[in-house]
Amino acid sequence: MTSNIVEIDNLSFGYKGRLLHKGINMAFPRGKVVAIMGGSGSGKTTLLRLIGGQIKPTQGEVRVDGKVVHEQDRDGIYQLRRKMGMLFQHGALFTDLSTFDNVAFPMRELTDLPESMIKDLVLMKLNAVGLRGAHALMPTELSGGMARRVALARAIALDPCIIMYDEPFAGLDPISMGVVCDLIRSLNDALGATSIIVSHDVKETFLIADYVYFVADGVVAAEGTPHDLMQSTLPFVHQFVHGEKDGPVPFHYPAGNYQSELLKQRL
Amino acid sequence: MERTKIDLWVGIFVALGVAALLGLAMKVGNLTSNNLGKTYSVSAAFENVGGLKPNAPVKSAGVVVGRVADIKFDSKTYEAIVNINIDQRYAFPKDTFANIYTAGLLGEQYVGLEAGGEDDSLKNGDKITQTQGAVVLEKMISKFLFNKASESESNSEPATATPEN
Amino acid sequence: MIKSNLLNSITRLLIGVGHRMIARVWRLGAGARLFFLTIIYSGESFRRFHLTLREIYFTGVMSLLIIIVSAFFVGMVLALQGYNTLQKYGSSEAIGVLVALSLVRELGPVVTALLFAGRAGTAITAEIGLMKTTEQLSAMEMMAVNPIARVVAPRFWAGVISMPILAALFSMVGVLGGYLVAVPLIGVDSGAFWSQMQANVDVRADIVNGVIKSVVFAVACTMIALFEGFDAPPTAEGVSHATTRTVVISSLTVLGLDFVLTSFMMVV
Fold first, then answer.
1. Which CATH number does A28-52+82-232 carry?
2. Does residue B16 sit at the C interface (CB-CB below 8 Å)?
3. Is residue C4 packed enough to be buried (19+ CB in 10 Å), middle (13-18) or exposed (0-12)?
C-alpha cells in the first residue's frame, strides 16, 4: 500500500480537441489536507470530477487507493466513490428533503442500517458541524454558510477516506468562512481522512493546507507547502498569492490594439 | 406522518381510478351482455353476409341470445359459413331459421333466429339449414330498377303485341 | 460572383438543415438510451415503493383537480354539441353513445395526456433540470447513488401508473357531465341515454383500447419530460427552454401516436 491515497499521473483532459490539462502529476498523501489552487477556469473542479470518475481522462490516469479510476466498470467506480465524500460548490443539497433527510440520504441509499441507528448517526454528524438544532429545516430555510455545513455533514456521513471540497469558501461571509475552515481541518484529523480542497481563496486555504498545488495553463505551475509558496519568487505564484491585478496573468482578455479598434469603428 | 398522508391520498387516487374503470365497464360499456357464460356453437351457411362482423349480436325476438364467433368463406359451395355461439340457457329447434337483419336503416347487422316447430333441439356443432342472407342495397335497387324497366317495356308493348295475345 | 454567392448560401442552408437533423437524431438516440436505462434500473422503484408512491402523489393526485374539472366541462360541451346535431336526425337518444364513445376512445386518453404534459410533465422537467443545475444529480452520482434509479425511474413509473387512472377518471367524469346536460337539462330520457350507451360501447374494443392508449401516452409523455429535464443545459434559460419543449414535443407526440394507435386498433 502506497502512502498516497490518490495519485494523478501525466493526466491530460480536454473537451472537443481543446486541452484543459496537459500532463498533470499530483500526489495526495493519506491524512493530509492538500489544496489545488489556480485561477477561474483552470480546470480545478474538473480534476475533482476526474478523481470521482465522472469523466474519463484523454490521457494518463488517476489512481485512487491503487486502482486506476477510468479502468473501473460502473460497479468498480461506485465502490471507489463509497470511499469519497464530496462537498459541492453550492452545497448541492437535495431541495426536496429536510436537513436531516439530506444527511441520512447516503446512509439510507447505501447501507442497510436500521432507522434508529441512522437517526443517531445523522444527529452525530450534524452535531459535528454544529447544526443538530437545525435538523428539521428545509434547505431553502438555511443560510449559505449553514447549507455548506449541512452539505459537509452529508459528505462525511459514511466516514469517507477522501473528502473533496469544491470551492468550500466561495460566497461565504467571514464568520462562516472561518467556521468552515476550522471544520475542514478538524474533521480531516478526527476522521483520519485525506482532504482535497479546490479553491482560489489564498488566505483560508493556506491556513489549513499541508501542501498546495498551483495549476495554470493546464500544468502544475508550482507546488509546495504554504510557507514555501508565500516565499516563492515565481511571478505567477507571487501574483496569485498576493492578489496583484496585473502580472503574468494579464488583466485584459486577449484582444487587438484598442486604439486601432476605436479608429476602425469611427471609419 | 408526511408519508402516511401521502399513502392515504395515493390510496384514494387509485381507488377512484378503479371505481372509474369499473363504472366505465359496467355502466358505460356492455360487459354484462358480452359475457354469455356457457355457450354452444352452431354454424349456418349464408349466400351473402353483407356487413356482418364477428362479435355481432345474435337475437331472437329482439333478445340477445348469442354472438357471432367467426365468419369463413367456403370455396366449394361459394357460401359464407358463420359460426355462432348461443347461450346454453336457450334451446332452439333443429329447423330454426337464421336471417341477417340490419338494425334500423343504416345500423349494424345482426343474426336473427326464428324458431321452427321441430321437437329436437340444436346441439353443439349442428348446422342451421334454413338461412337467408343479408339484403344488399345495390341488389335491391338494381332489382327495383329492372322491374321498373320491364314494367315500362310491357306497358309500351301492348300497341303492337297485345293483339296477338 | 453572384452565382457563387447563391451557391454558398444554399450550401450553408443545407449544412444548417443537416446539422439540425443530426442533432434531432442524436437527441432521439439519447432519449432511447435513457428509456432503456430507466427500464434496467427500475428495480429500486418497486423494491422501495414509497419512492414511487411519493411521485404518484405529485404527478397523479395533484393532477386530480384539473382532470376532473376539465372532464366535466368536456363532457357537458360534447353533450350540447352532440344534441345540436343529433336532433336534426331525430336521434337525440344517441347522445349518450356519442359522448361515451368520444370520451372513452379519444378524448379521455388524449386530453388527459395533453393536460398531464402541461401539469405534471413540465413539473418533472423543471424539477430534474433544476436538480441538474444545482449539481444535485452530480452529488448523487458522487455518493455512488445512481440518479436514474433514484430520481428518473420512480417518476417514470409514477407517470405510467397515474395516467391510465387519470384517463379512466376523465372518461367517467366526462360521461357524468354529459349525462347532466343531456338528461336534466335537455330532457333526453335517462333510460335511453344509458341503454343506448351500453349497447354500443364495447368493453374490449373501446374501453380496453382506451386504457392501452393512455398507457402508451403515459410512457411517451413521462419519458419526454424526464429526458428534457435530464438533457437541459444547466442554466435558468436552459431549464425554461426544456420545459417549453416538454409541452410542445409531448403534445405533438401524443397526437401523432393517437393516429397510429387508432389505425392499428381499427385493423385489429
1. 3.40.50.300
2. yes
3. exposed
